[in-house]
Amino acid sequence: ENYDAPDIANIAISNQLYEEAFSIYKKFEVNTSAIQVLIDHIKNLDRAYEFAERCNEPGVWSLLANAQIRQGLVKEAIDS
């Protein structure tokens, strides 16, 4: 397999194929980039929370908490 998953995901993002980009990042376990797609492009913090629970990585939780704070969800951010 002679391709770079993050490059393909970035091409998907540039073409507004956000679900596809999320799937690519998730499949190749580039989880911080995957949650960024959920937060910044798909704009679904509930899905982002579910994703953070599944992969349970500190960097993913941190990105989610920052997004929650930006949305005024302080209690949720503290819990994250």
Automatic annotation (TrEMBL):
Annotated TM spans: none
Gene3D superfamilies: Tetratricopeptide repeat domain
Any GO BP: receptor-mediated endocytosis
GO molecular function term, any single one: clathrin light chain binding
A GO cellular-component term linked to this record: clathrin complex
CHCR repeat extents: 1-77
Protein name: Clathrin heavy chain
Taxonomic source organism: Rotaria magnacalcarata
